[in-house]
Every structure is written in C-alpha cells, then in structure tokens.
Write a structure and sequence with these properties.
Low-confidence stretches of chain A: none
Radius of gyration of chain A: 21 Å
Order of helices and strands of chain A: EEEEEHEHEHEHEEEEHEEEH
CATH topology of chain A: Rossmann fold
Order of helices and strands of chain B: EEEHEEHEHEEEEEEEHEHEHEEH
Mean pLDDT of chain B: 90
CATH superfamily of the largest domain in chain B: HUPs
Number of strands of chain A: 15
Low-confidence stretches of chain B: none
Radius of gyration of chain B: 21 Å
Oligomer: heterodimer
Chain lengths: 249, 327
C-alpha cells in the first residue's frame, strides 16, 4: 500500500507571537515544530503500514529548506521517505493544496497513493482548507477530522466528530483523511529510529505553480484582548449583574 | 446587482441555528448594500415551517427535499450547490461555519475556482472589497484576507448574539425537481449519525460552563453538569482536563479543540493559557472563577470571583435555582 502524509511547520503552541516596532509580525524568535494534528496523521499512516506489510509511507511538505529537521523527525517516527518542496512559494491554502497535488501526482507517476493523511488543520492559521482542497484536486474521496479508522480491502470506515455526536463514513480507495486529536496517541521516537532516519532519503522537488493565489493576506496585526475584569464579591452580585446586561435572561 | 446564495444546513430535518443566523446576517448585508437579492439552498428533507418567526428578509429558498440528501454526501451536495449557483447567477456563497461547511466549502472553491474565506465574522466583511478579518496564531493576532477571484465563498463564524424571535420575513419556497444523482460515482457515503444523549455541542451552545484543572477530577464536573442543565447550556473543558481523561475530547475548547461563541461563558478553575483563550475569542460575556487572583483568565474576563470553585459552585447553583424559581 502506498501511503502519503502531508505535514507542515507551525510555531510550537507555547510560542508567544511578537510584533516589531513597526507593528509587523516577528516570527524570528519562534520555535517551529511539526503541526500537532500532523503528528496524529503520521502516526496513523505508520500504523497502517505496520498492518499491511510492504507498505511505504512517504511524507510531503511545502516549506522552507529548514523544514528538513522536521522531516528527519517524521522519518524517525516511522516514515520511509520524505519529499520537500522548498523552492516553491505558496501564499494561500489553494496554492499549498495545488503544490501538494502536483508533487504527489509527480511522485506517484503511475497513479495515486492508496491513502493520504493530513492533519485536520494547522494550529497557526486554523483554516483546515488544504486537506479538502487537495482531495478535490487529486480526485480522491475525503473525510475530515477523523477520530477512528478501520481499513478493509475494498473500503475504509471512519468515525468523525460532528456537532453533538459522531458520524460514520465509508470511503472508497484512494482516500484522503484528515486527522483529529484523539485518533491515536503518537509514539515517541527511539534513539535507534533517530539514527536510522539519518540513512533515509529526503528528496527535494522544484515545480512551478500553474495558478495564482485565490486569497491574499493583506495584514497581520496584534490583537488586544484585555478586558477590564469586574471582581464581584459573591454569586448574588454576579447573577444580578449578568441579568442587568441581559447575558442571563 | 449582488446575488447572494446561503447554504442552509439540516441534520435530522432540523435546520441549524447557525445557518439561520447566517441567512439573517446576509439579509442585513443585502439591506445595507441595496440592489441585492438573497436566496437559499436547503439540502435534504425538512419542514420549512420551523423557520417561521426566526428568519428575516425576503427571498427564495430552493429546497431539494429528496431522501437521498438527508445525510451529508459531498458529491451530491457539491453538485446541488453548484447547479443552484449557476442557475441563479450568484457569485457569492455563504455557509455557516460548521464541520460540514469546512469540508464542503473548500471542495466547492476548487471546483468553482473561487476565493474561499473561512471563519469570517460577518461584521468584519468589509463589503466594498469583500475582505475578511479573523484571528490567527491562537488568537494573538488578527489577519486580514482579500479575495482575488470573482466567485467568493465565505464560512461565517457565529458570534455571541442572542437568537431572534418574532422575526418577519417573506420567504418563497421552491421545491426542486429531484436530481438525477444515481449515475454519479460515489466516493464516500455517510452511513449514520449517532447523536449524544442531551448532545448540545459546545460549538453550538448559547451558554457554556467550562471547567479546568482546578475542578480536581471527574467528580468535580458533576456540579458543572448540573449548572449546564439549569442554564440550558453545555459543559466545556480545557485541554489538561481532556488529556487527564476527565472529560471527552469533543468538549475541549481551545487551540487543539473547538472554537466557541456563546453569549455567556463560565470558566471554573481555568487559568487561561493562550491556547485556551484561542477558543474563546468571540465569546460575549466571560465569567471567571479561580482561586488565583493573578490567573490570566481574569485579563479577558468581564466578571471575576476569586475563590475556590468547590465552594463557589454549590452556592452559585443554589442562588441560580432560587432565581429561576422566582422568574
């Protein structure tokens, strides 16, 4: 089975986003890590590989060359190969999905991978647009935010969270699945796996995008969230005040 | 003339409140703009009488009432929306920001070569250019986005507004002829939906009572459940609580959980990490109860009580019960 995983880099969740004196976002002091949702995606891919002998897990990323370290980590966590698209500049979700679709279809020249895993969304921009766009571009079945996966020879059964419950979805191969927290508990890499990962290959791809972005980011500004907290003495006062401002009717 | 199309989402025949809210906001936008028309598309069987009194403005709702659309189906829904857009010559499509639309809208955006703007607050859609502003980086920054294509798709995040009642709108419902879906290849099929008992979701609740590590354990949440029932709200949780296994993942609010927008949010024993605050950026009134008066949650709260949640919570329950009895 050919299994692809798409990963991206995000500021680690403990990072504080700073702005320079001109008000421009300053990401120079940010520690970049693998997107947490992508860790669930990678873990599920590696579990699938272990179930179907002879499977190959390939990790794809559209990111600067510095993302090599993240890909090394993915290799140490059980991926077999990694492909980095470092020279292609993408500026919106559509271009990211387009770049991934091109590199995946080039890589698997004789067809599509059987399953593609992505994280549900990146933790920085949190749009979750790339996985469904990629599925549409590749012409694959798609389910987002899955929390359970059972694979059969002919189809895949997944569960996902919907508002107030869960939904069971059956998909045909090839399929693209985006991973929600709770799908699995990602393993830790062993020292041996880290050393072995050094011997695995990271391929660099370059390609030209055939389309311009659909959306441009015009500004990123700091957000002032502070409110003036009114400390109340007890629950009677609290309820009275909530009633006054009609938050409690 | 602006022609707006609003996708109305139903589950089990109930049209989502978020969809109705989106319709109403698009109607407001159309009224501000002038020379605008709003129509809607509803997929799946549903009784449209449920909209009476909740929906504003004039417009046509196209209803594809076939049983085969009752459950979400990406291929069929995409085709239905695309056909309706083209027939009505609409260039702007609105969804409520839901799990379904976060899947369907990107798919359609590729198919229609449209600009997709997800999670927009409607008040921020500065219409002269159709841009949108939304929080990024766990809510510590606001990013502005502009569409570059003629076709535009928006998913509209809910914001803390009380529901409209006694609204007046003149809606014409046109039931669509059944589509000939049978010949299409089906990539994926939703087999069933399993709804939780009393399953009000934090993402849809008007009031949320959330608990953090300060609740001390599973038992601590029994009183929060009582409070949620009393207020007609939902129980939410911070990440440590879910990671400890005290509460299910579906209740987690924050950067790796859900983003919520209730009118009223109670934070019991939640310190207020940036990751948690990421999920409550559009909440109306925030009430924080924490024994640490320096907890960062108080920086974003409207009202605060400094005290032990285990002492405050029972008293709050009693007082509320009294208050609701008197009402």
């Amino acid at each position: 089975m050919n299994i692809a995983v798409c990963v991206c880099q995000v500021p680690d969740t403990a990072s504080i986003i700073r702005f320079d004196v001109d008000g421009a976002i300053d990401l120079t002091r940010i520690n970049e890590v693998m997107n947490p949702y992508d860790e669930y995606a990678l873990e599920e891919a590696v579990r699938l590989k272990e179930r179907f002998k002879g499977s190959v897990v390939t990790v794809f990323s559209v990111a600067p060359a510095s993302a090599k370290e993240m890909l090394r980590k993915a290799l140490a966590l059980g991926a077999d190969r990694a492909v980095l698209l470092s020279d292609t500049v993408v500026s919106d979700s559509y271009q990211t999905a387009l770049a991934l679709s091109l590199v995946i279809s080039t890589f698997y020249a004789d067809g599509l991978p059987d399953v593609v895993f992505c994280g549900k969304q990146s933790t920085d921009f949190q749009a979750g647009e790339v996985p469904p766009m990629l599925a549409e571009l590749l012409g694959m079945a798609f389910a987002s935010g899955i929390t359970a996966l059972i694979t059969f020879a002919e189809s895949l059964h997944v569960e996902r969270e919907i508002e107030g419950g869960t939904e069971s979805v059956e998909l045909n191969y090839p399929a693209l699945l985006s991973a929600e927290k709770g799908l699995n508990i990602p393993r830790k890499s062993s020292i041996k796996a880290v050393l072995d990962a050094r011997k695995k290959t990271i391929d660099f791809f370059t390609l030209t995008l055939s389309d311009t972005p659909c959306v441009v980011t015009t500004a990123i500004k700091p957000r002032e969230r502070k409110k003036k907290c009114k400390f109340v003495s007890d629950e009677n006062e609290l309820i009275r005040r909530l009633r006054e401002e009609r938050a409690l009717i | 003339m602006n022609k707006f199309l609003v996708f109305l989402e139903q589950r089990g025949g109930t049209i989502k409140k978020a969809s109705i809210e989106t319709w109403n906001r698009v109607q407001e936008l159309a009224a501000e703009q002038g020379d605008s028309a709003v129509s809607g598309i509803l997929a799946g069987p549903a009784d449209l009488k449920q909209l009476d009194g909740y929906i504003v403005g004039d417009g046509v709702i196209y209803h594809a009432s076939e049983e085969c659309l009752a459950l979400y189906n990406p291929e069929r829904y995409a085709r239905l929306v695309k056909d309706t857009l083209q027939r009505e010559a609409c260039t702007t499509l609105f969804f409520a920001d839901t799990i379904l639309s976060r899947e369907l809208a990107p798919k359609l955006s590729v198919r229609l070569k449209a600009s997709l703007l997800s999670g927009c607050a409607m008040s921020d859609v500065a219409w002269h250019n159709g841009g949108c502003v939304r929080p990024v980086y766990a809510g510590s920054a606001m990013a502005s986005f502009l569409p570059e294509r003629t076709f535009r798709i928006y998913t509209i995040s809910s914001c803390a507004t009380p529901a409209i009642s006694n609204a007046r709108g003149t809606i014409t419902v046109i039931t669509l002829e059944p589509h000939s879906f049978a010949s299409e290849p089906l990539f994926s099929v939703v087999r069933r939906n399993l709804m939780r008992e009393g399953g009000l979701d934090v993402a849809e609740a008007g009031i949320i009572v959330a608990g953090g590590r300060g609740m001390g354990g599973t038992e601590g949440f029994f009183l929060l459940e009582q409070l949620a029932r009393l207020l007609g709200g939902a129980v939410g949780a911070s990440r440590p609580v879910v990671d400890e296994g005290w509460r299910p993942q579906c209740e987690q609010i924050g950067q790796t959980g859900k983003t919520v927008a209730p009118v009223l949010y109670f934070a019991f024993g939640i310190s207020g990490s940036l990751q948690h605050l990421a999920g409550i950026g559009s909440v109306g009134t925030v009430v924080a109860i924490n024994k640490d008066c320096h907890a960062p949650i108080f920086d974003v709260a409207d009202y605060g009580i400094v005290g032990d949640v285990h002492l405050v919570l029972p008293k709050l329950l009693d007082t509320l019960q009294e208050f609701l009895k008197r009402k």
